[in-house]
Every structure is written in C-alpha cells, then in structure tokens.
Specification:
The chain is mostly beta strands and 119 residues long. The chain is built from 1 helix and 9 strands; from the N terminus they run E-E-E-E-H-E-E-E-E-E. The chain is flat, with a radius of gyration of 19 Å.
C-alpha cells in the first residue's frame, strides 16, 4: 500500500538531506508478521528521493506512528507536500529461525563467492 506524507507544512529536502517523514499512520500487526517500508520507484527516478534503511522494518510489537526515512539523492532541492505518496508498505510473514553452530558448512557450486561472483 502507498504511504502518504502527513505534513503540517511543506518539507523541502536539500541535496543529500534526510528526514523522518510522518505518515499519520499507526498499525497493529499480528505476531509473526512485519511491515516493510520500501521506496517508490517513480519518486526515486523522477526526483531522486529514496528511503534509507531499506527495507525499513516495522515489528509486530511497535505501536507508534510510522515514519519514513527519506533522503534526497538529487542535486536539486525537492519539496514534499501533505498527501504526497512517499513510500510503500508491504506486510509479510516472518519466519523465525533457530541458529545451530556448525564446524563445517555443506558445499555449493558458488561456495564463498561474493558480489558479482555468479555473473
């Protein structure tokens, strides 16, 4: 779902400036779920505005207002207005893992190859 800016006044982000933008939204997620805040592709492409800490996580036990950490990566100031669509929220199930210490990991074709190692 789209998240909208809940601003009392216009907010201008200068180049490389960041802000926690309020949405006016508080949610109660059931246990076993999380909210993921993601950037809007059009805002990123057209104005250089994206989310930091992406995806941002809203835990099921959080009850405060959802705020979106936005940054202006363009060279020009960008002004946000009340009601502007600023991010997207995805609700997803969370799998809980139990970690088990191992002396050796099973082998794979990729192995320990890092960024870009698979072509």
């Amino acid at each position: 779902m789209d998240l909208h800016a809940d601003l009392d006044a216009d907010l201008t982000l200068d180049s490389l400036e960041r802000a926690a933008v309020p949405t006016g939204l508080s949610i109660e997620l059931p246990p076993g779920f999380e909210g993921q805040i993601r950037p809007r592709s059009g805002l990123a492409l057209k104005q250089g505005i994206t989310c930091l800490n992406t995806p941002g996580t809203i835990d099921a036990d959080y009850r405060g207002e959802v705020k979106v950490i936005l940054v202006n990566l363009s060279r020009a100031p960008v002004t946000l207005k009340r009601g502007d669509r600023i991010a997207q929220l995805v609700v997803a199930a969370v799998a809980r893992a139990t970690l088990v210490e191992a002396e050796v990991l099973t082998g794979t074709t990729r192995g320990s190859g890092g960024f870009g190692s698979t072509g």
